[in-house]
Amino acid sequence: MADGTNILTARRSRAEQRPRAPRRRRAAWVGYLPYLLPGAVAFAVVIGYPLLTNVYFSLFKWRGGMAPLRWNGLGNYADLLGDDQFWTSFANSVAMIVAMVLVPTLVGLVLAAVLFDYLGRRFGARVSSVLRATYYLPQILPVAVAGVLWNWILNSQTGALNTILRGMGIDSPPNWLGDPATALPSVMLVLIWVQIGYPVVIFMAALQRVDPELYEAAELDGAGWWHRFRAITVPQIRPETFVVTLTCTVAALKVFAPIYVLTRGGPESSTLVPSYYSFLSFFDKSQVGYGAAIATVLTLVIVGVAVIILGLQGRAERREREGI
Amino acid sequence: MAVATPTRAPEVRRTAVDSRYRRGAGRWLVLAAAVVVGLAILAPFGIMLLNAVKSPQDYSANGPLSLPTGIYLDGVLAFWERTEFPVKLWNSVFISAVVAVLGALLSLLNAYAIGIGRVKGRLWIVTLFLLANMLPQEALIYPLFTMAQSVGLSNSQWSVIIIFTVIQSAFGTYLLASVLGTFPPALLEAAALDGASRWRILWQVVFPIVRPTLSVLMIFFFIWTWNEFFIPLVMLTTNDTQTIPIALASLQGDRMMDAPTINAGTLVSLVPAVVFFLIFQRTLTRGVTAGAVK
């Protein structure tokens, strides 16, 4: 991703440096506009128009369908500010970021480095690629299917985990997904399980890019594994770290299916997330305007977070270039 | 490493001996830890496999960790019939395949104009596509839902196909545009000198060269659409149109779903994804890498 935007900016600055024959250049690119037409129409219809309509809906009280739209101005947004469930849902988004970004990225970084730089060299590439495939397995299933499996494993009565625990002599094992105290940590564990393979695969691919001589030189200088990890691995694969952070943070803010199949936001809203809250408002409570307002706020948060991460990435790259 | 050391200087050899010393017990510990992580990730699959072919009596008597006393296929059959699985499988395949083809086509057209045509304002266009890919689907769903109703596409797979074609091609455009941005200009100039039109250059010069990238994109689009949950859940409301994940999730609250049926259902539902992954594994790992570095 990083390189993509760089290519574009680089190309633009090259174009700016070239003042000659501007008329012919313009004629050249105008000829390509028809190729953009199907995409532009499709985007306007499927993304642009619905997005604006959703913002429009958020300014009304509307029960959906044939019911009349009643103007509410910014009333829905004002209601959100005083809505405990709304704040709970965004607080839970932070938990989702911990489970889908923070833990998988940190653990994935260590796992990728261990597989690539330690086990790969001592036991051969086969061992590390089998382990990598194992870690990646949860990523290939539909997340809803994985969620249904976990929902059964964690079921308090018939689930595998509690049956095992009872067999070990624990009489009243926790109701993992049914107790407000354990539901959120349980959901987070499932998400870590789902997510962990993604950074491992990306980071291992990134490590192939790193010049092996760097490691050899550091090793000859007597640097231990941990030292090499900090001084070479982490800085060398920073671009990929940004990509993983960005894509996973956006995914964590959007998370819906696991919540739907694991807990439906319960118990007592302890696992409610913004996307599920807006879904509930739309289709369960028939508060379309309110649901649209939640979705609009979520959109702004996601775009804001993405812009911040992309900005940090740009700054890190600039600093690196100046450093060299 | 070990092969190279004898030819090197004495003090180098000493570090190599140190590291070989460390290798002795340490490397087995690290391997054991990595394998334990792998087993922890595999455990849910193992439990599922054990219980997918176990009778309910066997499950309540011997618990989830025992080997099944006999092969019991009623769970699989019950799930297969209850969900009319072949219908769901076809729905998933049909929707995902059409989205993969149309999405790749739309990405190619967009990327041709952006990467090769270098239309003005392309930086903004690509940024817009990138943002579109990040939008939460909740911010689009209600208008899309009412739009589908008003054009007679409610509960139609084509509504889902159209929506995902656009959403997936947002990413595809972004990726392909940066690939085509580095397209060798000499090839294009040669074709233009031969008098080839833009349309012919697209299909006879550009398309053959980016075909590997397009096939990776199509595999991605297929899997992503296959795994989608939210939009199909809202748009596809009856049994004959739903996809596999929706069918499984909608059986979940069912009181009649005992442990073997749930496990059998999960097993049957994830088999297509695993098969598809195994077939395209090589292309895919290359693609994951391409997506990260591009």
UniProtKB/TrEMBL annotation, chain B:
<keyword id="KW-0812">Transmembrane</keyword>
<feature type="transmembrane region" description="Helical">
    <location>
        <begin position="157"/>
        <end position="180"/>
    </location>
</feature>
<feature type="transmembrane region" description="Helical">
    <location>
        <begin position="89"/>
        <end position="111"/>
    </location>
</feature>
<keyword id="KW-1003">Cell membrane</keyword>
<keyword id="KW-1133">Transmembrane helix</keyword>
<keyword id="KW-0813">Transport</keyword>
<dbReference type="InterPro" id="IPR000515">
    <property type="entry name" value="MetI-like"/>
</dbReference>
<protein>
    <submittedName>
        <fullName>Carbohydrate ABC transporter permease</fullName>
    </submittedName>
</protein>
<feature type="transmembrane region" description="Helical">
    <location>
        <begin position="261"/>
        <end position="280"/>
    </location>
</feature>
<comment type="similarity">
    <text>Belongs to the binding-protein-dependent transport system permease family.</text>
</comment>
<feature type="domain" description="ABC transmembrane type-1">
    <location>
        <begin position="89"/>
        <end position="280"/>
    </location>
</feature>
<feature type="transmembrane region" description="Helical">
    <location>
        <begin position="201"/>
        <end position="226"/>
    </location>
</feature>
<keyword id="KW-0472">Membrane</keyword>
<feature type="transmembrane region" description="Helical">
    <location>
        <begin position="123"/>
        <end position="145"/>
    </location>
</feature>
<feature type="transmembrane region" description="Helical">
    <location>
        <begin position="28"/>
        <end position="50"/>
    </location>
</feature>
<dbReference type="InterPro" id="IPR035906">
    <property type="entry name" value="MetI-like_sf"/>
</dbReference>
<dbReference type="Pfam" id="PF00528">
    <property type="entry name" value="BPD_transp_1"/>
</dbReference>
